[in-house]
Amino acid sequence: MKQWQLYTSNELKPQGWLKRQLEIQAEGLSGNLDKMWPDVKDSAWIGGDREGWERVPYWLDGFIPLAYLLENEDMISRARKYIDAIIAGQKEDGWICPCREDEIEKYDTWAVQLITKVLVVYYECSKDERIPGVVYNALKNYYELLKAEKIRLFDWGKFRWFEAFIAINFTYERYQENWLLELAKLMREQGANYNDYIESWKRPLNKWTFYTHIVNLGMMLKTEAVSCDLLGEEYTDNAEFLRSILEKYNGTVYESFTGDECLSGLSPVQGTELCAIVEQMYSYELLYAYTGDSKWAERLEVLAFNALPATISDDMWVHQYVQLSNQIACQRFPGRSQFRTNGPDAHMFGLEPNFGCCTANFNQGWPKFALSAFMHNEDTIINSVMLPSELKTEGVNILLETNYPFENAMTYKINAEKEFSFKVRVPSFAQKLTITSKGAGCEKDMTRDMTRESEKAAGELTFEIKAGETEIHIAFETVPYFRKRPHELNAVQWGSLLFSVPVSFDKKIIEYERDGVERKFPYCDYEFIPTSDWNYAYCSEELEVCRKGVGTVPFSGTNPPVVVKTKVQKIDWGLADGFDTVCAKKPESTEPISEMMEMELHPYGCAKLRMTELPKL
After folding, report:
1. Which DSSP state fits 307?
2. What is the C-alpha to C-alpha distance for residues 327 and 602, in angstroms, rounded to an integer?
3. Average of pLDDT values for 387-415?
4. Mean pLDDT of the region 291-319
């Protein structure tokens, strides 16, 4: 049923601000974990004595496409070192994970699902011809162990069974062997059915479960899309049904769900785990590719342009475990935690606050998003997300110059040796769309400059491109607006960007060693201690967008590329019961206690301390 195929990192390259964002990632924690973090540097996956389960595969899942997108030969060689070690460690029967044979029965095979997915990612980047056979043997061994009941899915493997379908689909496309279909059915039979757990999502508890775990739920959304063909089942858009329930009871302003670690309701002072953000992004990328439904790409934009940069430092050396939409401080709680199942440091920026999974896993966010800019199907190419990129493939070169989402103007420079259909996905919020097209690729009635305006444009634009050079300019307007939120609060949104009242802060550096893991600058822990007021309410309907230009740090905390000006007044908001660094879920009073003042709202992804959901007076 797949509607669109993704391009590889050999065909699609980032440009402009996106390339700079990836360079920052490579210069930061992602590009250096194998040099300084024991769970990657000394992992059992490469013969060491540290963690031999999910952390190396998690890291490689982002590090590999990052290396190839940037054409960084040093990073590519370091990735190959890990892949070579993993292949060398594969047993004759196909077992691929680093544990003894007598440990396999109790080994959570989530790691099998994850490493085979990562090997597929590596193949798509490197075209290493060893990989299909390695993945084939690993899956065949997995199938034989499951069929013989020597192992069963449990814990993480049971609740992430659908992750194996990335590798199963890859292998079935090449070998067409029936045992792969049987493996798919075994996985589904032993795996969790999340439709059975819906009632548990409606009333958040201070209780840890696999079926309310936010990362599992972010992954889960792609289940039907990636599995229905192999299972011979009709696609029903079950993802939309499940997402709508999660949103109703646990939705966030940035299109994810609260989960610190498990579902946490509708409060703007509950957290969302970073792993869940990047996994939900990946689910949306695949949901769009499989279904072609624009809603998934638009939701993907909101996550990528807001939630992802908001929870990682500007230099991408440190990150949070959980982010809050109303986050007035990031300081360790001296007593009990504000979070339902996370510790007192989960919202601090650091090397591995609360737990190390996000340290390894956040790496996939930007690289996989970059690979979602263009997709194709037979003789049609679509620009699915308007990211500055260059596509070079089979006689077609498309350069997209844009600063979207900070500006709403795109220039496509196309050089084609053949005819093809070119589509551009236009966001639903676009207004007064303007198109100017010229060159050999125009239709007969478009041979002169053509401008077309409409009050509302959404869906897809189609251009029939002919051999030669074509240039297409697309621009549209976007109106900022107040978006209603629970508890009689409101958020400001402009296109895919959310805006927040920024809270200034001082950084407190915390350097120490724990369990043999050193935290030292720049990958130490930080407390962000607020130095400006945060207790505001909106008091005007006026919202003015002011563009300032994209700098060397696209989502800069000090030089945001765009701001929204509006009027605010202070109110007596109050603090959460028992805390002096967490604001109350909703204001204690909306009576103004100051004069009206102008406020520059910053993009949510730029404001590390922020108030995003506010009342209107």
Report:
1. I
2. 14
3. 98
4. 98
Q: Which two tokens stand for residue 229?
A: 């063909």
Longest dimension (CA), the chain: 75
Under a CB-based contact definition with an 8 Å cutoff, are residues 89 and 45 in contact?
Answer: yes
Which residues fall within 8 angstroms of residue 520, CB to CB, at 6 or more apart? 511
Do 406 and 548 meet the contact criterion of CB atoms below 8 Å apart? no
Residue showing tokens 């050079």: 469
Which of 573, 509, 502, 504 is closest to 537 using CA atoms? 573
Rounded distance between C-alpha atoms, residue 38 and residue 40, angstroms: 5
State what percent of residues in the chain have pLDDT above 70: 97
Cα distance between residue 82 and residue 98, in whole Å = 13
Residue 323 and residue 307: Cα distance in Å, rounded? 8
Of the candidates 372, 407, 400, 384, the one whose C-alpha atom is nearest the C-alpha of residue 472 is 400
Which tens digit of pLDDT belongs to each residue from 420-446?
Answer: 999 999 999 999 999 999 986 555 333
Q: What angle do CA 404, 323, 203 make, to 5 degrees?
A: 115
Specify the pLDDT at position 1: 85
Reported as a single tens digit per residue, the pLDDT across 251-286 is 999 999 999 999 999 999 999 999 999 999 999 999
- The per-residue pLDDT for 548 is 96
Q: How many CB atoms lie within 10 A of CB 510?
A: 14
Nearest 5°: the CA angle 455, 387, 314 is 120
What whole-number distance in Å separates Cα of residue 139 and Cα of residue 116? 8
H/E run at residue 483: strand 481-485
What integer pLDDT is reported at residue 173 of this predicted model? 98
Q: How far apart are CA 485 and CA 482, in angstroms?
A: 9
Q: Residue 7 gets which letter from DSSP?
A: P
Measured between its terminal Cα atoms, the distance across the chain in Å is 49
Q: pLDDT digits over 439-453, tens only?
A: 865 553 333 333 444
Please answer whether residues 596 and 568 qualify as being in contact, where contact means their C-beta atoms are separated by less than 8 angstroms.
yes
Q: How far is CA 329 from CA 47, 356, 578, in A?
A: 41, 22, 15
**Whether pLDDT at 69 is above 70:** yes
* pLDDT given for residue 458 in this prediction: 55
Return all residues near 569 (Cβ < 8 A) that are at least 6 apart: 536, 537, 539, 592, 593, 594, 595, 596, 597, 617
More confident residue, 454 or 562: 562
| Residue 441, pLDDT score | 55
Asked if residues 273 and 320 have their Cβ atoms less than 8 Å apart, the reply is no
What pTM was estimated for this model as a whole?
0.97
pLDDT digits 0-9 by tens, 36-52: 999 999 999 999 999 99
Give the contacts of 467 (CB within 8 A, at least 6 positions apart).
Answer: 416, 417, 418, 419, 440
* CA dist., res. 263 & res. 215, Å (int): 10
Q: CB of 260 within 8 A of CB of 340?
A: yes
Which amino acid, residue 14?
P
**Structure tokens given for 416:** 């084609």
